[in-house]
Amino acid sequence: MGDHQPVPELMTENDVVDLLLRQHSMIREMFDEVERAPAGRRAEAFRSLVRLLAVHETAEEEIVHPYARLKLAGGDAVVDDRLKEENEAKRLLMRMEEAGVEDPRFLTDLASLRGAVLAHAENEERHEFAALRARTSEAERRAMAAGVKAAQAMAPTHPHAGVESATKNLLLGTPLAVMDRVRDVIRDAMGGKG
Questions:
Q1: pTM, two decimal places
Q2: Residue 86 and residue 177: Cα distance in Å, rounded?
């Protein structure tokens, strides 16, 4: 399962907007995978989705949103709206993680989460990404992409042979714990460049 999907940390996009658009596409596919997974594989598929969402949203919060606040007209309002959407999705994700994939509400909650996440992604694409591309240089977008990739190299959503234990140690725990670890990795990576 998931073998056909690109691995985020090996993505070739060097423009942060292209990279995040590609991840939005991966997120849509992973929702389908969780929904279609047989009961015995659903927890694994959901865990992969949680990891991708954690890496993606945390990278946006730490790297993309600060640029948007600075560069976009009305950037604070745009970012605050996106953060509100992200927080609603995080609350639902936490509840789902706590209840587990066997919970009778899981598929209903998954549909709600999908709706919230995909509406959020569309809002980002419409209100943030296009304006960000227009108001930043190629060099800035490449630097942001490098920061996103650095975080993903440390917190892959698909463990590779030989690194499963390190990946599991990094990504064990609740979705918020995963996001905290990813945030630390991003801050270390971005700090190392400054």
A1: 0.79
A2: 16
